[in-house]
Amino acid sequence: MIRPVHWFLLAMVVLGAGALRFADLANRPNGLFRDEAEKGYSGWSIATTGGVPEFTLDPQHPLKYHPLPWMIDVMGVRTSAIYQYASVPFMWAGGLSVATTRMAAALAGTLAVLLIGILMMRAWGPGIGIAVAMWTALCPWHIIFSRWALQGAFVPGLMGLVLFGLFGVERRRRWGWPLAGAAMGWLFYAYSGAQPLALAWGACLALIYRRELLRGGWPLAVAVVLFLIPVLPTVIATLAPGGSQRLSNVSLWSQPGATASSVMVSFIQYYLDHLNPVFLFWRGDINPRHAIPGVGQLAPVDLVLLPIGLIYSIRSKKPLAWAILAAWLCAPIPAAITIGPNPHALRSFGMALPSTIWSGAGLFVMCDWLRRRDPKWRIDRLVWVAAPAIALSLFPVYWKTYYSDPRAQVAFEKGERDAWTRIVQNHKPGQKIYLSIQAPYGPYFELFFLKMDPRETVAQGITRGGEIVYIDQTKYPEGSTAFMNPGDWIVVQLAPWRVQTPTGPMLTPEESIQIGENWAVCAQKK
Taking the domains of the chain in order of start, what are their residue ranges? Predict the structure, then answer.
């Protein structure tokens, strides 16, 4: 029975989750990744004009205005607009900034904690539900992808809604199938990296709930309609020219010389990489945007708690047990069908929610076992405190890493943010700004930091009447400014190992190659 004290404890957990996700979003991570610049500007554009400028591949008409977009063309790559729409309330309230750009992700992560807490309280009991919510709130994997702007931030919450609907199906509630169908459809739309997960998990769920499907009736028909509402336009947009460009660039089968056997071998290898305890509990993803450098995607204590929760859920025949297991097993598929680097924590983000469910349940089961085994000493109380403390101890590492670690600063393109901040603060009318075409998504930094009016940008272009000049950096000798007038600005791209700091190069050549990002350097001609 769920009592008021349980709701109070859940509320405290959710408030803590919000604090871990919303605190100092403007500076941690320290920078602004190019995808964030696009999402922030596009969200602000929708909030102020109802549409977005899109860059086309047509040299005669490089920009077009797209009102109320379902999908957004981003420099030749088509993505969903769910994050941009979710950002609109924050843009209305606070304007365009780094912090407001990231708030939709922080809110999605916080609401996922609330949702999964309520679900597990009802499905597995109030004690387990609170433990699961707490573990989701403290999960490093979940925190990292709740603090910067990316569509993947919605994956755990939408998976939780699918599970909530299936819980209703198991209890023969008429709202069960419609909720599960709608949530699965929006999961398919929200993030292209989750589309293989939605398809594979959906197929597994059809097998697990085959009996319930046979007696589905009109709720099942409604579920199919609600599923297709977001899926059909997404599929149509994907099949249109250029819609599958991103998948074509990274899929295993599109690589030169790929054969059926080589694709299968690579798939199995990449898939198993995501089940490796070293990835899960020790080192994590090598990309600093996806994991704290040197820390696993999950807390080390999960190595003990997760198996306990998994075994408990299956042996006790808990509601949703097989659906959760299917989600965990299907989640690595999007990463496994694409080329490296693998393991890839973002494309396999669907593993996070089942993992925290099992670990939270494992914590509760372990403490309950200790309480019954030794009621006099109440060792369980020590475990209740020690386990969350171990998980929470990773957050200060995150807090420091994503502000001062050069690897994280390069990964989040702090150089671009610093360059544009300096330009915005010191630029005078008449001074030209020279930008490198070698900067990926470079125009979005210009649009974001200069807050260029979307409609004027489409009508006049991104050069602001000649004030902005894009140059091919490779055609000019390094350090050459002969083509510039005094007072003009230039932003160039350098490999991080060539950037000198008081203690030496910013990164080693090996680290620079591993992270794969350049460092922007800003200068003004005297």
Answer: 4-26+97-243+256-406, 407-524
Cis ω on the peptide bond leading into residue 29 (within 30° of 0)? yes
d(CA 436, CA 447): 15
Burial of residue 240, with CB atoms counted within 10 A of its CB: 0-12 exposed, 13-18 middle, 19 or more buried: exposed
Q: Which residue intervals of 251-405 are DSSP H helices?
A: 260-273, 277, 302-315, 321-330, 333-336, 352-373, 379-392, 394-404
Whole-model pTM above 0.70?
Answer: yes
Q: Mean pLDDT over residues 405-416, rounded?
A: 96
Tokens of 230: 């977001």
**Beta-carbon neighbour count of residue 70 at 10 Å?**
15
Residue 156 pLDDT = 98
Pairing mode, strands 77-80 and 63-67: unpaired
Q: What is the pLDDT of residues 495-511, one digit of tens each?
A: 999 998 888 899 999 99
Q: How many distinct helices (H) and strands (E) make up the chain? A: 25, 10
Instruction: Give just the sign of the alpha carbon dihedral 174, 172, 232, 87.
Output: positive
Q: Are 39 and 83 in contact (CB under 8 A)?
A: yes
